[in-house]
Fold this sequence. Notes:
This protein is an all-alpha fold. The protein has one domain (about 1-175): Phosphatidic acid phosphatase type 2/haloperoxidase (Vanadium-containing Chloroperoxidase, domain 1, Up-down Bundle), CATH 1.20.144.10. The chain has helices spanning about 1-15, 20-30, 35-45, 65-80, 105-120, 125-140, 145-175.
Amino acid sequence: xxxxxxxxxxxxxxxxxxxxxxxxxxxxxxxxxxxxxxxxxxxxxxxxxxxxxxxxxxxxxxxxxxxxxxxxxxxxxxxxxxxxxxxxxxxxxxxxxxxxxxxxxxxxxxxxxxxxxxxxxxxxxxxxxxxxxxxxxxxxxxxxxxxxxxxxxxxxxxxxxxxxxxxxxxxxxxxxxxxxxxxxxxxxxxxxxx
Length: 194
C-alpha cells in the first residue's frame, strides 16, 4: 500500500499547481517536531491569560510541551531502532538524512493535538487534529515519508501524550487526594448571612 500511495502522489503532484508544492514545503518546514514543542510552550503562555473558565492548572499545562518532547525523543529512538529507509530520492521534494519510521512531524503534531484535547476539552481542539492531519499529509505529498510512517507517527504521538497525561493524573491524585489534577478549582459564591 505504501508504494501505491507514493506512486499516486508522485503521478498526480505534477498536475497540481506549483504554488501548492511551495506552500507545502514551507508548511512542512514550520511543522517539525521542535516547532511543535515551541508552539506548545507558546500555547501554554497564551492559555494563561484566557478567561478563568478556560484555564487549567498552571502546572498541568506544562504536560503539553513535556509530553511532546518525550514523544519526539521516543520517535528518534525508534527511527534508529527500526532503521527504515525513506522513499527513493528521485521522488522526494526535500532532502532528509535520517530514517523514516515513524514520522517525527506526525508524532509532534498528534502529541500536540492530543495534549490540547486532554487539557482543554473544548470543541476547537478538532482544529488541532486537522493540523495534525495536514502535517502528515504534507510529509506524504513531498514524498519524504511512506503512508505507514505517518500513520505510526500519529498513533505514537497520541498514545505517548495520553500515557503522559495519565501518569500526570495519577501523580496528581496521589499528591492531592480528592482533587482532579489539571482543573482549576471553581470558586463557589458565598451566600450572604440572613
